[in-house]
Request: fold
Amino acid sequence: MPGRIVEWIDQRFPLTSFVKHELTGYPTPRNLSYWWNFGFLAGFVLVLQVATGIFLAMHYKADVALSFDSIQHIMRDVNYGWLLRYMHAVGASAFFFVIFVHMARTLYYGSYRAPRELMWWTGQGLLLLLMATAFMGYLLPWGQMSFWGATVITNLFRATPFFGDQIVIWLRGDFTVGDATLTRFFSLHYLMPFIIFGAVLIHLVALHTVKSSNPSGINLADKDNIPFHPYFTTKDLYGLGIFLIIYSIFVFFIPNSLIEPANNIPANPMQTPNHIVPEWYFLPFYAILRSVPNLVGGVLAMGLSVIIFAFMPFLDRSRIPGGARYRPIYKLRFYLFVLDMFILGYVGYVPPTTQTILIGQIATVIYFASYFIIPFISVKEDAWLFKRGLPPEVMALIEKEALDKEERKQKRLRRQGDIT
Amino acid sequence: MSNTSSEPISEQLGDGNRRDFLIKVTSVVGGVGVAAACVPFVASMNPSTDVLAKAETEVDITDIPAGGVRTVAWQGKPVFIVHRTPEQIQSVSTTANALDPVPDSQRVQHPEWLVVVGVCTHMGCVPNKEGLGWTCHCHGSQYDDSGRVVRGPAPKNLEVPPYYFVSQNKIIIGKVA
Reply:
């Protein structure tokens, strides 16, 4: 009977072939390490956030007079409200953690390189959507940090030429962050995850066109691909188990470790807390904002620091496949960049003093310099490594890619010849 | 269908230029229509009339002692009303330290009363009164007792809102007489 139902559906909808080609039988490089788990984990956290968020919205009230108390209501009165809220709050941090690792893996292994540029750029779009969603969600509890965080960030739009002040008022719907701001942030915070779902779909369609990259950086022959199920369903589920253990430790034992204490004080538009800090995942970018002693310059620097990742396919001119694996200088640059992110994160967390401002400015310069030097180091490094000699498989692949490129060029020329 | 005419096919099918023109005009009208349909949505996000109605605040300043500060809400923003002492007025008589130099006389209507919006011009935090002037704890900007910035990163002086004295001890903020 189930066979007949599936057959009936298959005549009308490509169910079996879709499942076979895109899910169970989807060809996956057999050498994927656990660093390749994080895309799946990001998808899992997205579902978790939407699920907990929908149930929280059943008890939350978006009104400046009620929202702070409605959080207390969720924490104290709603059955398992505390669990839903802590899962959602910790989930936001987990989402950024998973995405940062996912991005670091891409940068390390050069997964952004041809033909996966669109994967990287759709991923960049997803990062921006995630940041916007997290920022708007943070206003909803209407605590002091919520209020002043939203005030400072909406204030950044004052840097817009000519209409700065009008845009800030338009964004807030009021002269300050107020009731109108809270209700629109709630509306958009509920909307954005569904846009993220759509963007994830595009990300996955692109993935299934170009297939996964792998640690060797070499495009594997068909014999080196294995079906996604059961090999990677198992591997992803094992990774999920590890993830859930760490996630549960945060949810059940230290749920407040990532929530600023000042956010347990209701928002007070007349009094700024002495020390405003964003959530940990925004700290490095906030440090860059503060390091530039000028409003417009700071906003531009922070904006560039978030979208600079998108330029990687242009900046990296190396012909050697596999990201950092065969490229010691690029590898060194990668670790320096990660270290610099941690330094910026620290600078963003501590109150500004002359000393931390100086450290922040040096770290900001290193942040941008570490990207601008990539074209130079990738070319110089190539020359040095070719002279020193590379593994024969890598050499063979480089030659093959050069041939492919030449062939595409010839084809293009022929096509143009046909037209004219 | 008999095709005995000697006219070129394009003319039989109609004038190509006329068709291109119609497509362009229709696209422009359609585009304008879409833009016009966006206006209500964008405008709905601007302050509503009840928010705009709160745009003025009346303050009785009788009981602010000399040297005292009253913080009142105007448009949801804190406004500092300072009853300045002769020493405070003396301390702001020069623009020597100011980063955005404006004489004190242009920022007040009566020298003993300073009215400024208590929102740091850097990131929008509320500065705290400390000795002579204010210090913003967010990023360390300092203002003198005329609300002029004397230490960055704030780029501009504290804003002076529109206000006027209704009587000797009552002001309205948000409107000029």
